[in-house]
Design goal:
The chain is an alpha+beta fold and 296 residues long. The chain is 30% helix and 19% strand. The protein has one domain: Jelly Rolls (Sandwich). The strands form three sheets. Strands 1, 4, 5, 6, 8, 10 and 11 form a seven-stranded antiparallel beta sheet that branches. A two-stranded antiparallel ribbon has the order 2-3. The N terminus is likely disordered. Bound molecules: 2-oxoglutaric acid (AKG).
């Protein structure tokens, strides 16, 4: 990572779990991504396309949304070329990375987006202690001096999702004890309220222009900032999910978390990578998956 370019508010990936990569995405790539987002959005409400699209994510709401963008799309390839994430992430921990999923989010005034969360569910096919990264790429200006509409983060030096991920995975492994599950469910609301109080207090809302990228670790708590009234009708963004090539494939955790969440009445989360895994079996390395795209 370019430590020389980073300011305190932009975070340090190794220390804070997030950083902002300023101006890496070229204007030509941004135009292609806008077209890609519009193309995905047109498929809204057209189930015959077979794409996984919908108005609402699990717990969030948007004008347009997709979690099923083709990760091998040419515009996504150009974005990866611009971002040079292999170098940046290797500077953080020396590993190689794979693209596992691409989302598009289009938030208009009045949409809540996603509340405070870390990305346990998007990466539930990994061991609970495993790192993974999201590159969040806005296509419109965001921030406190603009119409808000960005993503707020809390540095992992203040609060980290590491223990909650372990807690969820442990609880997923205890589905045979419904008395225990019931007590966990009953305690969750109070637990989340206390944690969210701290997150609201410690939140950093980065100011970003199209071309900038917010890179954050799976354990970083983050939320959508609602779009305030103003000249822009909506805020568009892409999110790239990145997984370690030497990470272990654990579809069993993904499966049990689906059961746990549905027991709590929360909508299921699509299996984001099962169709990309080929013959890779539980416990094997993600690098063997034919459908995951190497990050360059
Ligand atoms: O773009 C947004 O509103 C939220 C993105 C987000 O929370 C995520 O990618 O996990």
């Amino acid at each position: 990572m370019h430590h020389d370019q980073a300011t305190a508010a932009d975070g340090d990936a190794r220390r804070d779990g997030f950083t902002i990569l300023r101006g890496r995405v070229r204007p030509e790539t941004l135009r292609q991504l806008e077209a890609l987002l519009d193309q995905e959005a047109r498929s809204l409400g057209a189930p015959e396309t077979g794409r996984r699209v919908g108005r609402a994510t699990a717990g969030g709401d948007y004008r347009r949304y997709s979690n099923g963008v083709d990760i091998a799309h040419a515009a996504v390839g150009d974005l990866l070329d611009d971002l040079q994430l292999a170098r940046t992430l290797s500077d953080v921990d020396g590993r190689a990375w794979l693209l596992s999923q691409v989302f598009v989010f289009d938030l208009s005034a009045g949409d809540a987006g996603l509340r405070w969360h870390s990305d346990f569910r998007s990466y539930a096919f990994l061991p609970a202690t495993e790192h993974a990264w999201t590159a969040w790429v806005p296509l419109d200006p965001v921030g406190p001096d603009d119409q808000h509409g960005g993503v707020a983060v809390v540095p992992t030096t203040v609060y980290s999702g590491t223990e909650e991920a372990k807690m969820f995975a442990f609880t997923c492994g205890a589905l045979d004890d419904m008395e225990y599950i019931g007590k966990v469910m009953a305690g969750l609301e109070g637990f989340n309220a206390l944690r969210n109080l701290l997150l609201d207090k410690a939140a950093i809302e980065p100011a970003m222009q199209p071309g900038d990228t917010l890179l954050f670790d799976r354990f970083v708590f983050h939320r959508s900032m609602p779009l305030a009234e103003g000249p822009r009708r909506s805020r568009r963004a892409l999110a790239l999910r990145l997984v370690p090539a030497d990470g272990e494939y654990r579809p069993d955790i993904h499966r049990t978390q689906q059961m746990l969440y549905s027991a709590a009445g929360v909508p299921p989360h699509d299996a984001p990578i099962a169709h990309l895994m080929g013959d890779v079996a539980q416990g094997e390395r993600l690098s063997g998956a034919p459908g995951l795209v190497p990050v360059r």
